[in-house]
Amino acid sequence: MTQLFGEVAGSYDEARPGYPPExxxxxxxxxxxxxxxxxxxxxxxxxATEVLVGLGAPMTCVEPDPRMAELLAARFPxxxxxxxxxxxxxxxxxxxxxxxxxxAWHWWSRRPATAGRKTR
Length: 120
Hints:
- The chain has 120 residues and is α/β, with parallel strands linked by helices.
- Helix content is 26%, strand content 13%.
- The protein contains 4 helices and 4 strands, in the order ααβαβαββ.
- The protein has helices at residues 9-15, 22-31, 49-52, 66-75; strands at 38-41, 59-63, 80-83, 98-100.
- Helix 4 links the parallel strand 2 and strand 3.
- The longest helix has 10 residues, at 22-31.
- It is globular and about 35 Å long.
- The termini are far apart.
């Protein structure tokens, strides 16, 4: 199901609404400044990415559909794009300081990826 929109990635991108630029200030305020890195999960074609790059933080976008990820990477060549489901993605050692998700939470399995793992 997570690859449903990849069949029409271009049309999806054109029809999908954007996000308010105030998101950038909200993230800065919550984080106490610009995070050292921002990971966006379920990035799709980058509708939220176009606002999030305004933070000025290095970005990684995790997107499970390779067709959506291809469009995303073409639109944002300075953003690292990882083709993987969030539940299967391996964050860098030490984790990431900021995680963003626009409208993709509902795609994830109900069981968290960290279930059964020890955390500090």
